[in-house]
Structure formats: structure tokens, C-alpha cells
Amino acid sequence: MDKKNRYFMFVDESGNPNLKNIDKEFPVFVLCGVMLEEQSYYAFRDDFNELKLKFFDNKDVVFHSTKIRKRNKDFKILIDTDVKQVFIEGLNACIYNADFTIISVAVDKREYVEEVGHIDDLYEICLSVLVERTIHYLSENKLDGGLSIVLERRGKKEDNVLVKRFNKILDSGTFKATPEEIKSFNTGFHFRKKNQNINGLQLADLVAYPIARQTLNPETEHPSFKVFKDKFYYRGDENRGWKKIPKK
């Protein structure tokens, strides 16, 4: 990676941060960030668009893990098992060949409520950890370019809540990252609409779900997880790109 270029951290989630009504079938929340240096992102974006044109003749198709799994809308073509196999192979190749780093936070909500004993703003906790570890990764690798954190726009009310959360992190820092450390990377927070078709956000979505499944069932490797499992942020032997809360 060019150490002076700007870096993009695309963030998406799997599950929801609601601690009051926990889905017994999917009691996990994952906030997932995928970080790419600027030129690496453009290369990945072009590869993704090439795959979209090959199968859909339209690079404006939005890849979404749920629609792909359920073969909904544009992905009805995947009902044909032969087409599905070739598509998944192509998708996996794009992800495997892309130069990115994963920093994610995975919460088993049942264990969290049992251990903590009260209701917190789980999203803010996860966002704080994600930003903190992203800053540590950039610092440790002496990557002195700027950082743009990109999320999908959800709605005025939801976006305003996120802006307040992010500004709180900028003003107060996190448990292990000072405001000065965070701001030293000219860290910015940006929203993009789904119809803007941001391939980086789609990559984060495709990575988040397998991490959630792997968190729930660690003994069984999810088929998509093995495609990117070597891309987590490591410090020595410690996987700092897959923070599990509570720590098991």
C-alpha cells in the first residue's frame, strides 16, 4: 500500500443492536469495517463492476448478501444452480483478490445482557471500538494518509444519531485512542445513499454476514468466511480485526 494515500473504511452491519427484543435465531450484532487504500479501492471497484456487467449487463446492480442468499429480484438468475456456482466463484475471486483489511466487532447479545446486566447504546460501543482499532492499525503501520469512514445513509433521524455518536468520539476519544490520535488522520465521516451504488459498502455487507455466522457457530467454518479470513487486522498472533463482546 502507498503509505501517503487516503484510506477508506466502509462500514456495514449484520443483525441489529437492539438488546430488548433479541432474535433467538440470530442473537448477534456485527459492525464490520473494510479498509482499503485509495488505489486498491478503485481496482476492487472496477473488478466488482466487471462482475456485475458479466452477469447482469448492468453495473448499477447492488450486491446485497440477503438478496443473493434468497435469490430475490436481480438475483433470481441464481435459481439456476450452474449460474449460481459460476457467479459465487466470481464473487469470491473478487473478494479474495481485493487488497483490504477487516476490522469488525461481534456481539453475542444474549451473553452481553447476561454479563453487563443493563442496556447500553450497543451501536455506539461497537463504533467506538471500530474507530479505535482502525486508528491503531494506521498508526502501527505508519500509514499517514487521511481516513474517510463511509456508511450507508438510512434516514434523517438515524443519520443524525450517527453523526452525534461520531462527533462524541471525535471530541472525547475512545477508551484507548485520544481525540488527537483520531483527528491526526483527518478522520471524516460520510454518508452515501444505497442508489449511489458504492461497491465498498457492498463489500462490507458481504463480509459482515459470514462473520456473524462464524461468531454464532465457531466450530463450523462458513463457506464465505474462508474466502477472507486472512484479511483481518492482526497484531502478531492476536486477531484485532475480530473483536468479540463479551470476550470469551
The main sheet comes to: 6 strands, mixed
**CA-based gyration radius:** 18 Å
Q: Which blocks of ≥5 consecutive residues have pLDDT under 50?
A: none
- Oligomeric state of the chains present here: single chain
Strand order of the largest sheet: 5-4-1-2-3-8
Q: Helicity range of the residues?
A: 40-55%
CA-based shape: globular
Q: SSE string, helix = H, strand = E? A: EEHHHEHHEHHEHHEEE
Determine the mean pLDDT.
92
Number of beta strands: 8
Structural class: alpha/beta
Q: How many angstroms does the end-to-end distance come to?
A: 33 Å
State which percent range the strand residues make up. Answer: 15-25%
Secondary structure tally, helices: 9
Fill in the keyword field for this structure.
two-stranded antiparallel ribbon, 248 residues, alpha/beta, six-stranded mixed beta sheet
List the helices and strands and how they pair.
Layout: E1 7-14, E2 28-37, H1 38-56, H2 65-70, H3 81-97, E3 101-108, H4 109-116, H5 122-140, E4 147-152, H6 156-172, H7 179-183, E5 188-192, H8 199-216, H9 225-228, E6 234-235, E7 238-239, E8 242-245
Parallel strand pairs: 1-4, 3-8, 4-5
Antiparallel strand pairs: 1-2, 2-3, 6-7
